[in-house]
Amino acid sequence: MKTQAINTSKIKPVDGRKPIEKFFEGGFFLCACFAVLAVALISVFIFFRGVPAITQIGLFDFIFGSTWSPNYNQFGIAPMIVSSLLTGVLSVLIGSVVGVLAACFMTDIAGKRAKKIMRPAVNLLAGIPSVVYGFFGLMVVVPAIRNAFGGFGLSMLAVIIILAIMILPTVMSITADAIESVPRRYREGALALGASKMQVLFQVVLPAAKKSILGGIVLGMGRAIGETMAVLLVSGNRPFFPTSLTDPVRTLTGNVALEMSYASGLHLDALYATGVVLFVFIMALNLLLRALSNKRREQ
Q: What's the burial of 14, exposed, middle or buried (CB within 10 Å: 0-12/13-18/19+)?
């Protein structure tokens, strides 16, 4: 008997998905499109309002200018950039060290009873509004700095302390999840070779989870740089270069929040341009994280 060849090019693939699956897939696609569209619209709006102001003022004068005086059409944001970077970096250094070590204690050292207390406490800390952190800083941290170092207490040091506390839940939660996701065989193999519990934690587990931990630190820095309300209450809001930790400072976000309500004309556009600078900072942080992750993946 002769067998006839079947022409498979004319056979249409059968879609085995149920209508309800198609419905939910369409809903997921719309949600993803909405998220991308929201980011695109915000970016276009900020750049549309901010870039012409930077062009009119001059990129060099705007970024490196040291004087912010809207009444005299002087819009230099260098002091705010320096203040934002210093407070952001220093608070992240403190918060990341404390957060990572606290997460290590919570996952590998603390008992079951301590974990039951610490986990809800970290989640509660993440849900506290920023204005509450600001009131705490104004009523507790600022007087403590005033009594210890003199001056008004409203200072860069107060901002660093408050921001370090605010980023703790982000760093702790992501670090704890990263540590717990490390395969158990890594620990068992290291223990079988004679490593101590601390050696396993710091030489095996943390290096294996470093990518996720780094992502949590970058997210914490993004929040530190973008924080507004708490910073407004404890910073002193002076648009000058800080010379010490006890000097009052003004951050980029604080500058926008303080003057947006009454600004107009070029002054208003300069505030939008400040938003452009903030946007570029956050985007640079994300690109840096991706570059580091890709480099480690190649290695």
A: exposed
| pTM reported for the whole predicted model | 0.85
Is-contact 277 284, C-beta < 8 A? no
Q: What is the mean pLDDT of the chain?
A: 86
DSSP class of residue 243 equals S
Residue type, 95: G
pLDDT in tens, 191-250: 888 888 888 888 888 888 888 888 888 888 888 888 888 999 999 888 899 988 999 999
CB distance 99 to 118 below 8 Å? no
Tokens of 115: 């974990």
**Residue 236 DSSP symbol:** B
Residues in a beta bridge with 68: 75
In which element (H, E) is residue 75 found? strand 74-75
Answer yes or no: is pLDDT of 3 > 60: no
Tokens of 97: 């060290």
State the distance between the two ends of the chain, measured CA to CA, in whole angstroms.
59
Identify the helix (H) or strand (E) that includes residue 224: helix 210-226
Residue 229 neighbours by CB under 8 Å, 6+ apart: 130, 131, 134, 257
Looking at this protein, which amino acid is placed at residue 161? Answer: I
Structure tokens that stand for 8 in this block: 């498979």
Taking alpha carbons only, the member of 58, 62, 55 closest to residue 79 is 62
Written as one letter, the residue type at 221 is: M
